[in-house]
Design a protein that fits this description.
Family: Belongs to the mitochondrial carrier (TC 2.A.29) family.
CATH topology: Mitochondrial carrier fold
Largest sheet: none
Organism: Denticeps clupeoides
Pfam families: Mito_carr
Structural class: mainly alpha
Helix content: over 70%
Number of helices: 11
Strand content: under 5%
CATH architecture: Alpha/alpha barrel
Protein name: Solute carrier family 25 member 53
GO molecular function, one term: NAD transmembrane transporter activity
Shape: globular
CATH class: Mainly Alpha
Length: 293
């Protein structure tokens, strides 16, 4: 009996350590991916905001200079690091909680996806203010009136949550929940299928992130465009989700092609970002003996 109790305690400690490592690994993978892909992200943001061509967006950023190229990098760097830690860590925690309830009734892939949906919803509530600040920072029309991060935060604090930090929360909730559910539901099956084709573990993980990002980002892209347009401006009565969606649709001349302008960069950024994130996370999960936890 004593041996059984000791074994049970040891298993609980191992599970706790694995969860702790998931938070650390997720944070590191998010940090690396953000540094690499931020210039692409900023170009994409300009396209979403102004419906500009790739060349026009690149020329805008080039004219502003290299210093302003990384203007606004602090919020996404902090967000993606925290987001990565939160995303992978909480998903593992939720999965551990629901697995005993559904292991006989639902396949593991479905449990992974359900835990991902829950993680995405909580993530949206926690990180929507960071996305709001980031979008305000990256809008060049705010450079004069809101030149610093402190001035932006002060301005948003003076408004109601719905108009301030949590503007655009509904589309963010939908986008993050669906996206996280699909990512965690597809991640391991796609990686394992690629491994059986002779790819190395790192390449399999990277390609898994790439393929999943394509499947997720394309259908959810209009929501990202809507969020960017809702959050980029400060002040005034911007209206609710429906009003903003109708205004965006009219501004894009009721054209799906114009609504998806910047879609090529979405695929490129998502492929690089989630490919790196997935590869770094899976690698650390298998080779993290250097971590003290």
């Amino acid at each position: 009996a004593t041996c059984c109790l000791a074994a049970s305690a040891g298993e609980k400690e191992d599970a706790s350590a694995m969860q702790s490592r998931s938070y650390v690994h997720g944070g590191l993978s998010g940090l690396v991916a953000t540094v690499v892909t931020f210039p692409v992200h900023k170009t994409l943001f300009r396209q979403q905001l102004h419906s500009a061509l790739v060349r026009e967006a690149v020329l805008q950023l080039r004219k502003e200079g290299p210093v302003k190229l990384y203007r606004g990098v602090a919020p996404p760097l902090a967000v993606r690091t925290l987001q990565g830690a939160f995303l992978f860590g909480l998903q593992g925690t939720l999965l551990q909680r629901i697995a005993p309830l559904g292991e006989r009734r639902a396949p593991p892939v479905l449990l992974q996806a359900v835990a991902g949906v829950g993680t995405g919803a909580v993530e949206a509530l926690m990180f929507a203010p960071f996305e709001r600040v980031q979008n305000v920072l990256q809008n060049e029309r705010n450079h004069r009136t809101l030149p610093t991060l402190r001035s932006i935060i002060s301005r948003l604090k003076s408004q109601t949550p719905a108009k301030g930090f949590y503007r655009g929360l509904t589309p963010i909730l939908v986008r993050n929940s669906v996206g996280s559910g699909l990512y965690f539901g597809l991640k391991n099956p796609v990686r394992d299928a690629l491994s059986t084709q002779g790819f190395s573990p790192v390449v399999s993980s990277f390609l898994s992130g790439v393929l999943n990002s394509v499947a997720i980002s394309l259908p959810l892209y209009p929501l990202s465009v809507l969020v960017a347009n809702m959050q980029a401006r400060v002040g005034g009565d911007g209206g609710g989700v429906r009003a903003c969606a109708r205004g965006l649709w009219r501004a894009r001349q009721r054209s799906v092609a114009r609504l998806y302008r910047g879609g090529t960069l979405v695929i490129l950024r998502s492929c690089i970002s989630w490919g790196i994130t997935t590869a770094v996370y899976d690698y650390l999960e298998k080779n993290s003996t250097w971590l003290p936890i």
